[in-house]
Amino acid sequence: xxxxxxxxxxxxxxxxxxxxxxxxxxxxxxxxxxxxxxxxxxxxxxxxxxxxxxxxxxxxxxxxxxxxxxxxxxxxxxxxxxxxxxxxxxxxxxxxxxxxxxxxxxxxxxxxxxxxxxxxxxxxxxxxxxxxxxxxxxxxxxxxxxxxxxxxxxxxxxxxxxxxxxxxxxxxxxxxxxxxxxxxxxxxxxxxxxxxxxxxxxxxxxxxxxxxxxxxxxxxxxxxxxxxxxxxxxxxxxxxxx
Length: 242
Hints:
Elements: H1 2-22, H2 28-55, H3 60-82, H4 88-113, H5 118-122, H6 124-146, H7 151-177, H8 183-229
Helix pairs in contact: 1-2, 1-7, 2-3, 3-4, 3-6, 3-7, 4-6, 7-8
């Protein structure tokens, strides 16, 4: 039963995330596809707990925790972008969850560092890398809690978290099913594509925002220059002849 749930909702997650990515951001369908992705991933992670326990792969526990945090981080970024007043209780909860993500990242990196079995040795760099990613996301979120970001900052944090969570789902699918592909490539290729996508969306929205103040300053300077060369006295009246 858990295997069936895992496959069905994993397929939904793999479809919903790209759909949310390519529709208008902030629109109705973006919200619907994003909600479908989060709900599907929740079922995937829940069912995966039973499957991992049966296989005895301890390293999948911190990896699942990292995936859960990435989804949580992406969701909370939207809430914080819309929030108008401080909420100390929510801030404490977010900090506690970020702290748990740091522990999950350290656990994944530790398991990679002490890898002894052939399976763990084959994915040792991936475990350390995923652990570092979890710690980086959690620390970045914690800094955002301490010094509130702009709406653009939270939007970019939302994109990064959700895309990273989708990468984790794709990676799990590839690792399990792409038997003819070398193990390290199964881990590295989805992460590289995900990092490229995050960088592309960040530049798409960040560059115009950085250029906007310069354009405003340029317009202000042009207006000031026009005022400087404008005539200070009215032109002479018509000349009378005779």
